[in-house]
Amino acid sequence: MNGTLQSKVAIVTGGASGMGFATVSRFLKEGASVVIGDLNADNGRNAIETLSAEGYEDRVRFTTTDVAVENDVAAMSELALDAFGQLDIVFNNAGIGGAFGPITELDVDDWDTTFHVLVRSVFLGIKHAARIMIDQGRGGSIINTASIAGMGGGGGPQAYSAAKAAVVNLSKTTAIELAPHNIRVNAICPGVIFTPLMHSGNEEQAEEVIAEVQPLAKRGEGSDIAGMALFLAGDDSQFVTGQEHIVDGGLLANGPRLLGRLHNSRNLHRMAGMAFGTSGQAATVRRL
């Protein structure tokens, strides 16, 4: 098989579901070997079973990973070397919805957890990927999941939006630092992508809201992010670094106006808590 990523080795965090799993599948189809890092071990086992049934068992591995813990990220990176002998691509994609509610009611521990999962994880992913890629001496591609929520107000809760803005800037600064090593660093900024993290089980209502504000009629899917990740991972983007790549159906150009409209944000003025997405941890909610 000859694919865009033939003989490449990738790590995808949050790769057991949603955008991450769509990207893992696409990378495998394009010839790469992939290590999936995800906190949700059940999702990880299911992902491996599905991909093995498709004939990829020799080119995919799973490891339970808390992306905010350095030892876990280091072990995940070493697994790529132990299993496949090299590391060419890292997609720092794992995320949670994070702290939500009025700024006057946010719990400081929830705020810190949000930044640990969404920003500290990207720092750690870049750090350990860069160490390996520098030692290998042939460059590489690091891709970070940000969000259009980090590019203006009104696209998400305060902590989530601020964290994603940090991911955009971290991608730019490390792109400059790592450019002499031919290591490219880019951010993907999704709009509304229909994953369990986004719609919280209420797809129909989410579709109605998005139809009002998104110019393209097509709804965003994990495969749309996978397509951009494939471009950034491959040689077609070898002159692209330090950029935020918006994949949102024109939503940002139209002004997102999402906060308070989607199912998981419409009552934020009456609730506060913490959303853990597909990590396997239950959300906490306090009614105000």
From TrEMBL:
Q: Gene3D superfamilies annotated for this entry?
A: NAD(P)-binding Rossmann-like Domain (3.40.50.720)
Q: Mind listing the GO biological process terms from this record? A: lipid metabolic process
What keyword terms does UniProt attach to this protein? Lipid metabolism, NAD, Oxidoreductase
Q: Name one GO molecular function term.
A: oxidoreductase activity
Return the PANTHER family for the record. 3-OXOACYL-(ACYL-CARRIER-PROTEIN) REDUCTASE (AFU_ORTHOLOGUE AFUA_6G11210), NAD(P)-BINDING ROSSMANN-FOLD SUPERFAMILY PROTEIN
Similarity-based family? Belongs to the short-chain dehydrogenases/reductases (SDR) family.
Q: What is this protein called?
A: Short-chain dehydrogenase
